[in-house]
Design brief:
This protein has 20 helices and 23 strands. It is α+β, with helices and mostly antiparallel strands. It folds into five domains: 115 residues; 125 residues, HPT domain (Four Helix Bundle (Hemerythrin (Met), subunit A), Up-down Bundle), CATH 1.20.120; 55 residues; 174 residues, Heat Shock Protein 90 (2-Layer Sandwich), CATH 3.30.565; 132 residues, OB fold (Dihydrolipoamide Acetyltransferase, E2P) (Beta Barrel). The strands form six sheets. Strands 15-19-20-18-17-16 form a six-stranded mixed beta sheet. The chain has a five-stranded mixed beta sheet with strand order 7-9-10-12-11. Strands 21-13-14-23-22 form a five-stranded mixed beta sheet. A hairpin with a 3-residue loop joins strand 16 and strand 17. Helix 3 packs antiparallel against helix 4, helix 7 packs antiparallel against helix 8 and helix 13 runs parallel beside helix 14.
Amino acid sequence: MPVLGPHAVASLKQLSDSLRRELAFTKPGSDDGLLPLNFLLGELEELAAAQPFPAAFAAALATPRRCLDALFDRGGLFDPDSITQLQTWLAWLPQAVAAIVAAAPLPPFASAPATVSAANAEAIAVIIPAAPVTSAAPDTDGLLVLDPTLDPELLREFLNESQEHLQQIELGILALEKDPADNATLNAIFRAFHTFKGGSGFLHLTPLNRLAHELESLLDLARQSRLAITPAVIELILAGADATRQFLAALEQRLQIRPLAGEILLPLAALLARVRAAASTASAEPARHPTTASTVPTAPAPALASSPTSATISPAPAAAPTVVAAAAVAAPGSQFLIKVETHKLDHVVDLVGELVIAQSLLAQQTDPDAWDNTPLARHVTQLGRITHELQKAALSLRMVSVRGTFWKMKRLVRDLAQKSGKAAELATVGEDTELDRSLVEEIADPLVHMIRNSVDHGIELPDQRVAAGKPRHGTITLRAFHQGGSVIIEIRDDGAGLNRDRIRAKALEKKLLAPDARPTDTELFNFIFAPGFSTAETVTDLSGRGVGMDVVRRNLEKLRGRIDIESQPGRGTTFTITLPLTLAVIDGLVFGVGGQLFILPTLSFRESFRYDPALISHLHGSGEVVHCRGRLLPLVRLGEHFGHPAAPDLDRAIIIAVEADQQVCCFVIDHLARRHELVIKSLGELFRPNPAVCGAAILGDGRVGLILDVNYLVKCRPAAPPLPLACAA
């Protein structure tokens, strides 16, 4: 086989690493990472077509392509089978890359089964990607044969507890990197790995138990001052935490398939050898001032000793993760957390919503002034207060702080800065800010893409910062706070700011902007959210493909949120994300069109004004437009859109301006009611064919209001007039 050029070799290795990194964001039931994987695979296919790769390599590329195409056909949500397929291929890819670079024969590739059934589940092995194994000997240190007699509920509780421990470990390592003499943090990391050793041993998870034991021994040497906390040791402990996370992710995927059987292969030989080598270099002499070792309990986590059907009670997480015996008694005044399945909380919220509606109907259908029995009026009023407080309490059950999500970004900034040769750190503000649990889970992926963008495009190289009179270390600030019934998340960096000229040139190149257009900064900055838009001069594994920011916008649209940009040259950029507190309740404006009530999310509302025929114009090929503050905005008559035969009374009609996807559009409505906070109800199959409606809510008088999908209505409107940025937000 011909020898590849250095550029082709670098591209091949880079794409291989990027694909493995993106796969880490995938999880069953989510589309996180699907578009980046598709783009990266496309780049790899193009590279394979342009280079003299072996035919077997091109044939192996068909496996992930079939998998991703099938995912797009099924709606774009990952499932355990598809993730297993991709993991199997990505476990083979680094070895194939090494063989191609060395002009050696490719290793054989056998794809995982496409479907999983009870008959073949025992034969499936979940393989975690790792670097190519140079030794011919099998890596038996990382092979786990699952025991079908294990209780899946015990494993699931172990996984839940482990995520908290991993988070504390990672934060502790980052703190220890800044202050290697921090004995309290060192002890906390040691205790966490000790907890992993005890729990994994109880569940016979031998590879994880072996890894935790070796890392615990290494950390114990550091506690005795016989091992210095050097950057190499920090990297080693982080590698151990990463391997633990990968193992737990593979175990979680395996839990979704019945029966619980098969194998999980965690390539551990190289990592364990590095840990043992580091431990062997420690001084054999006892320390003069050894770190005080904390007492470490040896019992498994309470989740392992409790009944699978009972709620698990554990202490509130503190700075140092600990294990508490199942029979532990709470000290007076201490706080405990009780874990409840999410669907039970959803059921409570639904029932409370029905109670609120019933109470509102009772208050609407009675006249307190006409009551002869004044105690009844007092009781109904008191019922209203209690119902309102009960609704707030029920919704608060699903509220969690953003602390965990913010803390994960600290590791991301550290790794990205080291890889890009930059000096950057993350500062967090408002970690106790709470919002709906489902929102916290959904914003993780957008934040990852935006943090990447800030490090790669925002923060300058250290020498450039010094030359500009800035500190060598750049700072990215992640801030969350409540404002007007919404949650605001800011991502601010003190870097170079957005390059207006470069964005304009790229917009002109992609024909997103007319040559004679004079857009405002806000209009220009919004182009970075366009699909495939990137100002990077070269494609790296951090950015350059124009995928990340497009993913951010689409994910925020699904959450009924929006994003705004402010940037100053040389001073940095601020991205402001506005989100609702919860997806179970909508803060919306109620209005009527043709006898039907509709609900518009408050975040989409811009302004309203009286209908005036003098403001309406007709543009050929673009339909109706309305003159609003010196701009031409598309006009949609909602009555006609929903097929209402009667025209509204235009003398009393109102025009409302709405915003979605960085575009502004106007609706003609009959009347505008007041703002309401309403419980969202899902619609049945009857309304599924109508994409303009995304839900419903029952109003206080018992009538039903349909919640509009503003994004769809703005996109399906008549084409915008051919004026530069006339309809851009």
